[in-house]
Structure formats: structure tokens, C-alpha cells
Amino acid sequence: MEEFDQFVDVVAEQMLALWHHLDPTEDTMI
After folding, report:
1. What is the value of pTM for the model shown?
2. Is the pLDDT of residue 30 over 60?
């Protein structure tokens, strides 16, 4: 299950980076 947790962490980080790239003005929501 550790591998899955690491995978989720990586995906979440990627999605947050993408979100910020697409919508940098919505910083305050996170």
C-alpha cells in the first residue's frame, strides 16, 4: 500500500501544479 500512497502523493502534486499553471489567480482557494 505504500507504493499506492506515493503514487497518490505524486499525482496530487502534479494536479496542483497543473491547476496553478492553468489558474494562477485562484491561489487563495488552496
Report:
1. 0.52
2. no
